[in-house]
Structures are given as C-alpha cells and as structure tokens.
Design a protein that fits this description.
With about 270 residues, the protein is α/β, with parallel strands linked by helices. The protein contains 10 helices and 9 strands. The strands form 2 sheets. The chain has a 7-stranded mixed sheet. A two-stranded antiparallel sheet has the order 1-2.
Length: about 270
C-alpha cells in the first residue's frame, strides 16, 4: 500500500508537483488566450462568465498553488502537492462510485506519449469491476485544426483508451498516438455512441479536450491538468467538470505509476 506521505514525496521528487517543468511564461500566455476566448485555450469549454487574466490567475492559485502575484512573470511554475493529493482522493472517489454501479465509462487522452499507461491501468481495473469500457467511433476520421493547418486523424483505441493517430500509423510502428488538446475526438465518440443508441458513458476520464469536451456536453468528467491548462479548472469552477487533478502532465510515463496505484487502492480497485 502506497502511503499518502510516500506519494507526496514522489510527487515532489518526480516533478509532478512542487516546482514543475511548465514555465510561468507559458502558463500566463495560456491565461491570456483563455481570457480572449481563443479556442486553442478553451479546448471545449464554453465559459458561462467572463474570465479576465487576473481572475484566471486567482483561480489557478487556488486550485493549483501557482503564485497569485501578476508581477511574477518568469521562471518555473509551482503546484502544491497537497492540492494534488486532495484531488487524487476526489478522483478515486469518483472511480469507486462508478465501479460500484458497474456503469459504462469512456477513457481518452491527448497525451498518449505520457499518460496512456495511466489510463490503461484504470480501464483494466474498471473493466474487472464490471464496468463496460466503451470504444465508440473506432476508426472514424477526425479533422483537427493545428498550428500546421487542418490535419486529418483517425480515432483509435489502445487497450480501451481512446486517442488519435495519423492515418497509416499504428501500434506496430511504435507510435502511441498524436498529441492534441482538441475536443473533437470526444465529441465524435459521444455522437457516434448516441446515434447508435448507446450505451453512453456515466463517467468520462481523460485530459485536455477529452475532459473539457465531455464535461461541456453534460457528461461527468474527471482528469489531470497542468498549470498552463486553465480550461479544466474553469470547467470545475463552473460545474461542468467534476474533478481536476493538478499535476505536470508531461513527465516520464513511469512516474505516473505510483499515482495509479494510489487511486486504485483508494477506490478499492486494486487486484
């Protein structure tokens, strides 16, 4: 059993919390884009209220532990490990609740290079608990606007976890999937599930556009987010996203394994 104290130490040692790799400059730029309602920062959230840069900074200070001082404009950002732990406990509670009901779930990631293993472990545990791990819209085309222009991707699933790949790539080539913040993949998956008569997920687990896009459509959604991604935290503040775990989402994939063990233990889903 991984203790809370041991996990807290791991969060700091691995750079998942404490001083993280995300720069203050990048975070502040994201807050400016979100305040301007730039789709690149909204990633599926349609805010109810107007969020100015100062309000966003205050929200991120409250939810993540970043500095609330607008004069602090450079250096590396900070995440409070105790806020991460509290959010992981809430995350585990939502996993336990859906597992107890044996309810259908949908998992997806825009960070497959780093977070795929984390979600795969959750999918396997929830499946073993009797939850249907949904895989709608397998192979569907998704056109996503990127900084390189409009790119066509294919919606795919790796051990029950949704992601997008460029056409012609696959697991055999060692490519885990493409990095994206777009909400279009989850919108596509949910639309196809609805058109087919269901089942629809009672819980969506993911990051970036997956958690924001699902939450905006009224599905309960939970997942991790970094200090430069204000959208999930705004969604949580406004009630469209259930749980957001503040952490660095781009460290080495093996560093997330203790988090997996912790939440599965807390949710009574360990095998």
């Amino acid at each position: 059993m991984l203790t809370r104290e041991a996990l807290r130490a791991h969060l700091l040692d691995a750079g998942l919390a404490g001083v993280v790799a995300t720069s203050r400059e990048v975070s502040l730029r994201s807050y400016r884009l979100f305040a301007a309602r730039d789709p690149r920062a909204l990633i599926g959230i349609d805010p109810v209220r107007d969020w100015g840069q100062r309000e966003l900074l205050g929200l991120m200070a409250e939810r993540c532990g970043v500095s609330a001082d607008p004069r602090h404009t450079s250096g590396r950002d900070v995440i409070d490990p105790d806020r991460t732990l509290a959010a992981l406990d809430a995350f585990a509670a939502r996993l336990a609740a859906v597992a107890q009901r044996g309810a259908p779930v949908l998992l997806g990631t825009g960070h497959p290079h780093r977070l795929l293993g984390f979600y795969v472990a959750l999918a396997e545990a929830l499946s073993a608990a009797g939850c249907a791990v949904l895989t709608p819209a397998q192979g569907r085309r998704v056109d996503i606007t990127t900084r390189f222009g409009l790119r066509t991707y294919r919606l795919d699933y790796d051990r029950g976890v949704a992601l997008v790949r460029e056409p012609g790539t696959g697991c055999a080539g060692g490519e885990p999937g493409a990095h994206t913040h777009s909400p279009l993949p989850v919108r596509t998956a949910l639309a196809v599930a609805a058109e087919g008569g269901g089942p629809l997920p009672e819980l969506v687990i993911g990051d970036h556009g997956w958690v924001c896009g699902a939450g905006q459509l009224g599905f309960e959604a939970i997942g991790p987010a970094d200090t430069d991604d204000p959208a999930p935290f705004v969604g949580q503040a406004e009630g469209s996203v259930s749980v957001v775990v503040p952490l660095d989402d781009a460290v080495r994939s093996e560093y997330y394994r203790p988090l997996t063990r912790y939440v599965l233990n807390r949710a009574c889903l360990s095998r």
